[in-house]
Design brief:
Distance between the termini: 124 Å
Number of domains: 3
Structural class: mainly alpha
Strand order of the largest sheet: 1-2
Radius of gyration: 35 Å
Largest sheet: 2 strands, antiparallel
Shape: globular
Oligomer: single chain
Strand content: under 5%
């Protein structure tokens, strides 16, 4: 066994031991290791009590390592150049193959978690659960079971494809698939049942994604350093930039998640759940110190070709991260404080009390935090501002109107997702329709007019190595991909914009989305994405897969917008409410009938379409006029250049003609001076003649 492999195995053993010690200690301190058995209820037994958290730790660590291996292959290691194109290096391909084995372990651990979860829920030992068809029956009925089935399937796909994939695009696709596979379990755990589940669910999803990238990337970086791999300095530099963002995301999402479960800060020290959460917060601060030390000390050591210091510190940091993951699993096995006993059924469904009778003042003042859209607006705003600042610092200009348009788009998104409108939209269909129309037909227009793609292409620096891919190169790959070429076709974009609206509201999809916060967020993201795609095709000024004549864009707009009017008319003529089961559960007493409110929502949908249509028409006509002006100036410059070339050609021809005349004159003068000599027998002529 080589020395590098010995160091890697030793570091892995240290991390595993740290995770095990933290898990056992937290289970004992939190009381999950000695759960009280209620008389009359079944007991799953010691095997399930310990097997479930242990398999969860293995699943979480294997998932993070899978993501880390794919991250190393896709982004951390630079590409090699072959035939003028970038390809994965030998080390990157090795990480892909390692990801295959890690994903297989992830899948096996998830299957074990699924078995132990059914045993825990039913209160039956594992051997009874595995007999007959009890496992398959209850897996479909339990949300946690369904989530784990998805994890098993997705991780198996990653394991199989990672064995044959050898292209940068394929590695990127596997990384995206692995990140998706992380989400189902946390979305069906404590977060889904927390009091403020709208914050808890989103915060936990962001938390899990950021932790996987952070922990997995550092583990692969440490493995690379211990085994003596090449390009370590480049990997460390790229990981350091990503880790800072991951650390910020983990901190903010973790605090939001804890606040959603523990609204009283004193609960951090008065209960088992709070004390374990406090332990995670302290460990998070320790990891922040490690990150600071890396940036200040070990990265310069790598630049001086001294990787030993980095490898040692990374080993300790990975061990601390593994211990925190064990602590997190124990925290998930510890019951959070129960919600208030006076909650009614509607408050349990909504995650907040039913709002009072709607007034304009209450819509303006009863704000509610939607963590996903608040975080999205903050990130998008900061990134856009950073791009504009970078352009100005290097002396380039960026139109102020585009910046203002981007700000208006983010502001409208925040107003409909954070203000009192977000409190009333789940209980009143009319307010939901205001939210829908804004997110799909108003916010995207201003975001598209902000032209973020062009800003990103101008602000992002090209990859330092030829053939390598940085954020700018990956953005160009996406823009030129076949997928974007298909969905950006005007007919396809219009169909997504219109057909999905009818498919959502006139099928059970709408009620299912309203009952689940994750589905509700997915629905709002779809509104925003479908509108952004449609209006990007019509009024986007950045690079696009195809150029569409302005007349065709105008025809697509005029042909598409009436369908939204038809949608509003269809709602206004409803004879039975949409999502009747949901609205009967949450509809407030002070409101009118559910059907009349939905008729009002149809009127809003019918009348709202005029506003975005007018804005898009103005933008389209303005772009058409400016494009004609640019075309006219281009043609004028082309005509001027052609005229200049003609003048140059005529002058050259005239000069050539003069030169030929001069040459002929010189030739005639030479013939006059040079006369032929006479014969000797001839007498010279005299003046008088012969």
């Amino acid at each position: 066994m080589s020395e590098g492999l010995v160091r890697v195995v030793r570091a892995a053993a240290i991390a595993a031991a740290a995770a095990a010690v933290a898990l056992v200690a937290a289970m004992l301190l939190g009381g999950a290791a000695a759960e009280e058995v209620v008389p009359g209820l079944g007991d799953a037994g010691t095997a399930t009590r310990w097997g479930l958290p242990v398999s969860r730790v293995v699943m979480d660590i294997a998932a993070a390592l899978t993501v880390g291996a794919l991250l190393a292959a896709t982004f951390l290691l630079p590409l090699e150049v072959a035939g003028g194109r970038g390809r994965l290096s030998a080390d990157a391909v090795a990480y892909l193959r390692a990801a295959s084995w890690l994903a297989a372990l992830w899948s096996a651990a998830a299957a074990a978690v699924m078995v132990f979860t059914v045993s825990d829920v039913l209160g039956e030992p594992v051997d009874l659960v595995l007999t007959g068809n009890r496992l398959s029956t209850y897996v479909g009925d339990l949300p946690q079971g369904t989530a784990l089935v998805l994890v098993v399937l997705l991780s198996v796909v990653v394991a199989l494809l990672a064995r044959t994939t050898a292209t940068p695009g394929g590695a990127f696709g596997l990384l995206a698939l692995a990140l998706v596979a992380l989400l189902p379990p946390p979305l069906t755990g404590h977060a889904a049942s927390a009091g403020n589940h709208s914050v808890a669910v989103t915060a936990l999803a962001v938390h899990v994604l950021a932790v996987a990238l952070w922990v997995g990337g550092l583990a692969m970086l440490g493995r690379h350093a211990l085994s003596g791999g090449g390009r370590l300095e480049t990997m460390a530099d790229r990981y350091s930039r990503m880790a800072l963002w991951c650390y910020i995301a983990v901190g903010i999402s973790g605090l939001a998640s804890v606040a959603a479960r523990l609204p009283d800060p004193m609960q951090l020290v008065t209960g088992d759940y709070g004390r374990l959460a406090l332990g995670k917060i302290i460990a998070f601060g320790v990891l922040g110190w490690f990150g600071w030390w890396h940036r200040e000390r070990t990265l310069p050591a790598l630049a001086d070709r001294r990787p030993g210091a980095f490898a040692r510190l990374a080993t300790v940091e990975v061990a601390v991260m593994a211990a925190v993951m064990g602590l997190a699993v124990a925290l998930s096995r510890t019951a959070p404080p129960p919600p208030p006993a006076d909650q009614d059924a509607a408050e349990v469904l909504l995650g907040f009390p039913v709002p009072p009778e709607i007034t304009l003042g209450r819509v303006a003042t009863l704000w509610k935090l939607d963590f996903f859209f608040a975080a999205a607006a903050a990130v998008l705003g900061v990134l856009y501002a950073a791009g504009v600042i970078r352009l100005r610092r290097r002396g380039d200009r960026w139109p102020v109107l585009r910046t203002v348009s981007w700000g208006i788009g983010l502001l409208t998104m925040l107003l409909v997702t954070q203000s009192g409108l977000a409190r009333y939209s789940p209980v009143l269909f009319s307010m939901h329709m205001v939210q829908h129309m804004t997110l799909s037909m108003l916010t995207p227009i201003f975001l598209v007019l902000g032209d973020p793609i062009t800003l990103a292409l101008r602000a992002l620096k090209p990859a330092p190595g030829r053939g390598d891919r940085g954020p700018r190169e990956w953005l160009l790959v996406l823009l030129h991909s076949r997928y974007v070429a298909v969905i950006s076709h005007p007919v396809v974009a219009a169909a997504i914009f219109v057909v999905t609206t009818f498919a959502l509201y006139f099928t059970p999809l709408f009620e299912n989305a309203m009952r689940d916060h994750t589905g509700h967020i997915a629905m709002e993201i779809h509104f925003l994405a479908a509108g952004a795609l449609f209006f990007w095709v019509l009024i986007g000024s950045g690079p696009q897969p195809r150029r569409i004549p302005h007349v065709a864009k105008l025809l697509v707009l005029l042909a598409t917008m009436p369908f939204h009017a038809f949608f509003g008319i269809a709602l206004m003529n409803l004879g039975r409410p949409i999502a009747e089961g949901w609205y009967r559960s949450v509809h407030p007493d002070w409101a009118g009938s559910i059907l009349s409110d939905q008729h009002a929502g149809g009127a809003i949908a019918w009348g709202f379409g005029e506003i975005p249509t007018f804005i898009v028409l103005l933008a389209l006509v303005g772009q058409w006029f400016l494009d004609d002006q640019r075309t006219a100036r281009r043609q004028d410059r082309r005509a001027d250049r052609a005229a200049a070339r003609r003048e140059e050609d005529e002058l050259a021809a005239y000069n050539a003609h003069l030169a030929s005349l001069a040459e002929r004159d010189r030739a005639a003068g030479a013939r006059t001076v040079r006369k032929p000599a006479g014969r000797p027998d001839e007498a010279p002529e005299t003046a008088e003649g012969g």
